[in-house]
Amino acid sequence: LWVDENLPYEYKKPKDLAEAYHYVSQADLFNRRIRRWQHWRFLVYINAFLSGGIASSKDSKYSEFVQYKPTMRILKLWMANQKYAKRKAIAEKIHEKMHTSVKETVKSVVPYMQVIFKQNKEMSGKIAAELDLDEEEVEWLCK
Q1: Where are the domains of the chain?
Q2: Res 4 pLDDT > 90
């Protein structure tokens, strides 16, 4: 996570950057093999590609100072989870009544519920009572 986000700050030449990303992709390939086969001997290759491989991809040393930045992916994942937490809570209530998975409910039922809640207030009140939806969840479905 951290290495691939900071590579463009460290490597200015496109050729050097492309070669560095090649080594990151090779390390990712071995990481997938470790996960698939549980052969932890491949960890040596990951470390080699992420350290020596990336370092050797430069033609010459760059003279300017580079301040590395922390990865933002974890923060973005957290923000996305917070954004869709209400949708997931509604889907969990619906899936109990409909006997479907939460994933299937989010994908195929919640969009229809949103249409119903926007267009038919009488029906939406009955559905909200049946599913025990609170006021915030009803507001979310209406928006």
Answers
A1: 2-58+70-77, 84-142
A2: no
